[in-house]
Amino acid sequence: MDIDIYDFDKTIVPFDSGSLFIAYCLLHYPYTIIFLPVHALGLLLVACGILNFTQFKKVCFSFVRIIPLEKAVKGFWDRHEKQAHKWFEKRERYAVVISASPDFLLNEISERLGFDKLICSRHNAKTGAIIGENCRGEEKIRRLYEEFDKDEIRVVDVYSDSIRHDRPIFSLGENCIHINKGKKEPFKFNDVYKD
Predict the structure, then answer these.
(1) Taking the model in full, what pTM does it have?
(2) Residue pair 192/163 in contact by the 8 Å Cβ criterion
(3) What angle do CA 129, 26, 81 make, to 5 degrees?
């Protein structure tokens, strides 16, 4: 089966959905401000190398336990769905979206935009805690092959905004497309990754 792989944040949409959702919830559910000191401390510990990003994400979305999550997610996508890049609507092949963003946030937009397959970070929707590993870097490939037999798929195009973090998925594609401010910029894998 021929597939195309898409990153989500800053690729299909021009923003980081997790961060924007946190801001949306602060605006619409102001009492979530009580979690800001926890976030600030977590960011400081990440900057100091004491916590890794996956550990930080274990507490990052802990505020979801005190909001009406389903309503918040629907409201968020009602506001931001229209920002999805129009070129994504003109897909030629089976679309596999692989993202580090939370499943409780992306499931809704996956249905709205018609992803064929969504692979993303798993979170406990009641507590916000990440379950397992953050779906980033090599984890994206591991999760892809959890869903598909390696010998039964052919990755044609790979789309991502992050040349730095998405080398693993770019390595799978026949064609690599860097998304820069919503524009598609094809490149040759060996021209960018020389080592």
Answers:
(1) 0.93
(2) yes
(3) 85
Residue 156 token pair: 């044609």
Between CA 111 and CA 161, with CA 39 as vertex, the angle to 5 degrees is: 45
Whose tokens are 């550990």? That residue is 55
Q: Is 64 exposed, middle or buried (0-12, 13-18, 19+ CB in 10 A)?
A: buried
Whether 142 contacts 122, CB under 8 Å: no
Cα 133 to Cα 11: distance, rounded to the nearest angstrom = 21
**CB-neighbour burial class of residue 92 (10 A; exposed 0-12, middle 13-18, buried 19+):** exposed
CB–CB of 165/141 below 8 Å? no
Q: Cα(10)–Cα(131) distance, rounded to whole angstroms? A: 23
Annotate 34-50 with b (16+ C-beta within 10 A) or e (fewer).
ebeeebeebeeeeeeee
DSSP letter, residue 178 = E
Block residue for tokens 């679309």 = 95
Q: Which residues of 160-184 are buried (b: 16+ CB within 10 A; e: fewer)?
A: bbbeeebbbbbebbeebbbbeebee
Ordered mean pLDDT values, 10 residues apiece, the chain (195 residues)? 98 96 96 91 90 82 95 98 95 96 97 97 93 94 96 97 95 96 94 84
Per the listing, tokens 């400081």 go with 44
